[in-house]
Design brief:
Layout (H helix, E strand, L loop, with lengths): L1 H18 L5 H11 L7 E7 L5 E8 L5 H10 L10 H7 L3 E3 L4 H7 L3 H10 L3 E9 L2 E10 L8 H50 L5 H44 L5 H32 L5 E4 H11 L1 H6 L3 E4 L5 E4 L1 H17 L8 E10 L2 E7 L32 H11 L3 E6 L5 E8 L8
Parallel strand pairs: 7-9
Antiparallel strand pairs: 1-2, 1-5, 3-4, 4-5, 6-8, 9-10, 10-12, 11-12
Helix pairs in contact: 1-7, 2-7, 3-6, 7-8, 8-9, 9-13, 10-12, 12-13
Length: 453
């Protein structure tokens, strides 16, 4: 008994390694069919559920490759009847494992529809058969069938648990692979949409001088369409991404002890990629919201707004031991608190982030009045700086000057700053030199002295 349990455990551990080696669901299912032959069966087959609820053969494997064609010919010429007691279609419908411990010639004759059908069934040499459902998230997505022939193996009730355990693990891997595929497809659609938007922007720039009036109308129209489309795609992306992250956590928790270092690394990479994409979608949604958020301008105490944002960023500032100096007092401005604080948070967070790891971040916040009607707020850092020809580019969506490994981020933060300031009737810019820090600025209207939030 102990030897049998140890053998089953070793088999499942080896199966986990094979199942975790690919994120292609068809390749995963083909691997399932291969790993059980000849360890558990003389031949195996994997069926997938069709939209009509029938079972469609995906792959078959036999100890004698020449006999694999027999399985496919049987499937093509004599699809299993839905009500047959041990058919894959019945297992799909009921979600219950079918076990036939002993297959004799009388059973084959009863199942055969004609002489040729009986000939093919006898050619397979079936002796025993078991078919288990592939179930993921409460839904049967296919079946795994094992059969003995030449070996004379007989499946018993005690073998069902092992086959069902293997089917459950395979179904989880297939479901993860499908979710990963769906997330990749959604990401590809988003990238195509953004690429199309970039091409449209270049077309508009090229015709600006000749069609100035038409250009303004087309930009507004296309920007509105892009916002709506990006909003829809972003929401469609989040469900599969969160499912991938959740299933990666479940896989690590349920099967972590059975995964080797490479398997755990695959799980961690899936989770990290999903979370990074989720953060990018969050930033993209923030950018989109700025296009249609109702903005109510009012008098705001700029010093109080800066203080609130610094308090929210306290953990990030402390982690880098950042020194922040605010040259008070800061004047009152006309703005909308949520948008202004989002702009300030992005600028202050960047001032900490884009400083070399061996340098203590030093940030200065000060204000000046270029004229009596405008306030310019400066946020100055001692970071890596920006070359002059890149200083406008950094305010565009998904424009990054550095790799994700060196300076993580979404590539949208400064685009949010520029768009937020435009919604507030202000402006944003930067003065910088490479390796000499940056001086970002925002401009806002001066508020009447009698009202400040």
């Amino acid at each position: 008994m102990h030897r049998r349990a140890d053998s089953a455990f070793r088999f499942l551990a080896e199966a986990n390694e094979v199942l975790a080696s690919s994120l292609d669901f068809e390749e995963t299912l083909q691997s399932v069919a291969r790993i059980v032959v000849p360890a558990l069966a003389d031949w195996s087959a994997v069926h997938l559920a069709t939209p009509g609820g029938t079972a469609e053969l995906l792959t078959a494997c036999h100890t004698d490759p020449a006999k694999e064609a027999l399985v496919r010919e049987l499937q093509r010429r004599y699809p299993a009847e839905p009500d047959a007691s041990a058919s894959a279609t019945r297992v799909l419908r009921t979600g219950k494992t079918a076990l036939v411990p002993e297959v004799d010639d009388d059973m084959l004759m009863a199942a055969a529809r004609d002489r040729d059908h009986l000939r093919l069934l006898r050619a397979l040499g079936l002796r025993s058969f078991v078919c288990a459902p592939l179930t993921a998230r409460g839904r049967v997505i296919g079946t795994l069938s094992l059969a003995s022939a030449e070996s004379g193996r007989r499946y018993r009730v005690g073998d069902v648990a092992l086959v069902e355990d293997l089917a459950r693990r395979a179904a989880l891997c297939v479901d993860n692979a499908r979710l990963f595929h769906d997330a990749g497809e959604a990401t590809h659609r988003l990238q195509e949409a953004l690429a199309e938007a970039a091409r449209a922007r270049e077309e508009l720039r090229a015709g600006a001088e000749r069609h100035a009036a038409e250009l303004e109308h087309r930009v507004a129209e296309r920007t509105g369409d892009l916002n709506a489309f990006t909003w829809s795609i972003s929401h469609d992306l989040r469900a599969p991404l969160r499912a991938v992250a959740g299933l990666a956590d479940a896989l690590a928790e349920d099967c972590g002890a059975q995964l080797d270092t490479r398997g755990l690394d695959y799980v961690d990479r899936m989770r990290t990629a999903a979370l990074r994409m989720d953060a990018m979608i969050d930033a993209l949604l923030q950018y989109c919201r700025l296009g249609h958020t109702e903005v109510r301008l009012e008098g705001i105490d700029l010093g109080a707004a800066v203080a609130r944002v610094l308090a929210d960023l306290r953990a990030e500032l402390d982690e880098r031991d950042a020194l922040v100096t605010v040259l008070a007092p800061l004047p009152q401005v006309r703005a909308f608190v949520p948008v202004l604080e989002q702009v300030l948070a992005n600028l202050l967070s960047n001032a900490v982030k884009f400083v070399p790891p061996d340098t203590r971040p030093r940030i200065a916040v000060r204000a000046e009045l270029p004229d009596p009607a405008r306030v310019r707020l400066w946020i100055e850092d001692n970071g890596i700086g920006i070359e002059p020809h890149h200083q406008e580019r950094v305010f565009h969506v998904f424009e990054r000057l550095h790799g994700q490994e060196a300076y993580p981020g979404t590539g949208i933060g400064l685009a949010i700053v520029r768009r937020g300031m435009e919604r507030l009737g202000g402006a944003a810019g930067v003065e910088s030199r490479l390796a000499q820090g940056s001086r970002f600025w925002i401009e806002l209207p001066v508020a009447p002295a009698e009202s400040a939030a």
